[in-house]
């Protein structure tokens, strides 16, 4: 969590599109990319733009500076009552990341704290440099990691969640992989190559199928196996019969890339 602000009038979040990959960059390094009101507003706007753009296949969430995101901006939080706290806007960010029909990859070259960890957990894939660190530091300043728990708890083992939420202990990227918070921890010099490896694989997937797979992964499972099979059989058959499914089948038979993967 951070306490220093950036110069007024400066854009704090940038969006760039290249070969189907939309890169959204948090650029508030003097504020350790804290979730200030301006950064929250710009991040949501760029996420909405990327999701709505048919040319975007994958979204990468990254940062400038040495810190991925320090959590809420404590300077803005100081003195505000419960209804004025900026944390009330964080669910919109986390929900947008979580529900995005396009895969979202988090790229961390540095630490994430509190709300920053919530964003990492909301992404589909997360890659960090090995020297990046993480912490749920909320309890150490007298608050609770409540909002971010919605995206974090589905990722973590119960034991790890209890330990790390209650102690606020800092842990490294290797531990983050072990407990399911991130997918990969690599040397800093290999970070961009690892992100590119994931985005290249994701771009080989059909856009509709990726969206459908994400929705399937997020769904609540029925109470019985029979009901689950019935729903999944219907879903599977609909995708086999879809335009994408039929194109994929033809491409496989003709030993060529499907149209969505051409050039990937």
UniProtKB/TrEMBL annotation:
<dbReference type="Pfam" id="PF00378">
    <property type="entry name" value="ECH_1"/>
</dbReference>
<dbReference type="InterPro" id="IPR029045">
    <property type="entry name" value="ClpP/crotonase-like_dom_sf"/>
</dbReference>
<comment type="similarity">
    <text>Belongs to the enoyl-CoA hydratase/isomerase family.</text>
</comment>
<dbReference type="InterPro" id="IPR051683">
    <property type="entry name" value="Enoyl-CoA_Hydratase/Isomerase"/>
</dbReference>
<dbReference type="GO" id="GO:0003824">
    <property type="term" value="F:catalytic activity"/>
</dbReference>
<dbReference type="InterPro" id="IPR001753">
    <property type="entry name" value="Enoyl-CoA_hydra/iso"/>
</dbReference>
<protein>
    <submittedName>
        <fullName>Methylglutaconyl-CoA hydratase</fullName>
    </submittedName>
</protein>
């Amino acid at each position: 969590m951070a306490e220093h602000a950036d110069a007024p009038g400066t854009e704090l979040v940038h969006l760039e599109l290249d070969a189907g990959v939309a890169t959204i960059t948090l650029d508030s390094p003097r504020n350790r990319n804290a979730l200030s009101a301006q950064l929250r507003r710009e991040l949501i706007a760029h996420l909405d733009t990327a999701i709505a753009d048919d040319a975007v296949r994958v979204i990468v969430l990254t940062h400038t500076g040495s810190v991925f995101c320090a959590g809420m901006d404590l300077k803005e939080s100081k003195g505000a009552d419960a209804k004025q706290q900026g944390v009330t806007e964080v669910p919109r960010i986390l929900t947008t990341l979580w529900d995005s029909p396009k895969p979202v990859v988090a790229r961390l070259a540095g630490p994430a704290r509190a709300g920053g960890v919530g964003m990492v957990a909301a992404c589909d894939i997360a890659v960090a440099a090995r020297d990046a660190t993480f912490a749920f530091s909320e309890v150490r300043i007298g608050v609770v990691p409540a909002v971010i728990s919605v995206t974090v708890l589905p990722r973590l083992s119960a034991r790890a969640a209890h330990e790390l939420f209650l102690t606020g202990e800092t842990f490294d990227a290797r531990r983050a992989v072990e407990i399911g918070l991130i997918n990969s921890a690599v040397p800093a010099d290999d970070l961009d190559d690892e992100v590119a490896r994931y985005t290249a694989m994701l771009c080989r997937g059909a856009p509709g199928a990726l969206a459908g797979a994400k929705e399937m992964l997020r769904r609540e499972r029925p109470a019985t196996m029979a009901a689950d099979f019935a729903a999944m059989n219907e879903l599977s058959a609909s995708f086999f019969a879809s335009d994408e499914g039929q194109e994929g089948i033809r491409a496989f038979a003709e030993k060529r890339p499907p149209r969505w993967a051409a050039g990937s």
